[in-house]
Amino acid sequence: MELDEAYLALYDLVGAKKTDHFIFTSSGAEGVNHAVFAAYLDSTRKTGKNHFVCGSIDEAPAIMAMSRLSELGCLFEMAPANKEGIVSAQAIAETLTPRTAMVSISWANGLTGVIQPVAEIAEVCRERGILFHVEATHVLGKGYYTLESSGADVLTFEGGMFIREGVEISPMILGGDEQAHMRAGEVNRPRLIELAKSAKEALRFRDHICMEVARLRDRFEERIGKGLFCEQERLPHISAHVFPGVTSDALLYMLNRRGVEMASFGGNRHQHLMHILQACGITAPDIHSGLSFTFSSETTEEEIEKVAERTLEVVEHLQKVSHELR
User: Both 167 and 236 in a single domain?
Assistant: First the structure.
């Protein structure tokens, strides 16, 4: 695969125009940090606007990057999520001030699957002249989501970032004229080609994810009980649950021992599911009993039945043990 073909595949994945600018990055975290610190350089340093906003259920890169700006005299605030797992445009609007330089939102949460109203948030930011960044790793290939429909000025995902036509941001990695002076250093050609192959595969399986995997997710929820946030628009491959009387770490450990590898409670670049549920108004002890299940294009109905059966068995066992220890 030639580089031109690789770039086209990434533009197709994001639905970007040829006039939008793409930067190949080492990770999604790099893209988020680039967007945040560029806003500091381009807006805060020049205009004095020093207020940065993200959602209370956003992921670690945005939260940590904006928190670091506090050391440079900036103010960082997280707009609250509601009980539906949504950071609404109204919540964002109520958080903004005349000194807000940037708003950053994850298009969907990787543990709850809830999709955020980024187009509405974009309109609020546009009206006030605020740079709007969207982190899109979780939604790409999981539906018909594009740079244009997001309304984002800057859109990042695992491996790259798109800058909408007409938007200018400063580079973060300096030292050469590569990628139109936006990121110094030789482009890792093999990794770029692999990223493009992944983009093509994501588009090839998109209909399958949206229809068949969504059906399997619904079947899973029929078997083990209705999941959290089921009434909201959400990703087709994620199902979040609370299992009363069971701690999530014990449940995850026992599921892993039984060969179930599609469950998680977060960590690493994710917030812990406990903190997300707490931010959405779920109270103790339920916040300690949450688990998220993620399915893929390779998930089968047989696997769904097996995972559901083993989950119910483990939950019943742990609830019984918990009751006996009281």
Answer: no
- Whole-number Å distance between alpha carbons of 245 and 76: 36
Straight-line distance from the first to the last Cα atom of the chain, in angstroms, rounded to the nearest whole number? 62
Q: pLDDT by residue (tens digit) across 240-267?
A: 999 999 999 999 999 999 999 999 998 7
Q: Return the bridge partners of 76, or none.
A: 52
Alpha-carbon separation of residue 137 from 6, 27, 59, 179, 187 (angstroms): 18, 10, 11, 21, 21
* Segments forming the whole domain that contains residue 265: 205-325
Q: Which CATH number goes with the domain that contains 318? A: 3.90.1150.10
User: Which residues have CB under 8 Å from 255's CB, separation 6+?
Assistant: 263, 310, 311, 314
Is 218 in contact with 29 (CB distance < 8 Å)? no
pLDDT tens per residue across span 155-167: 999 999 999 999 9
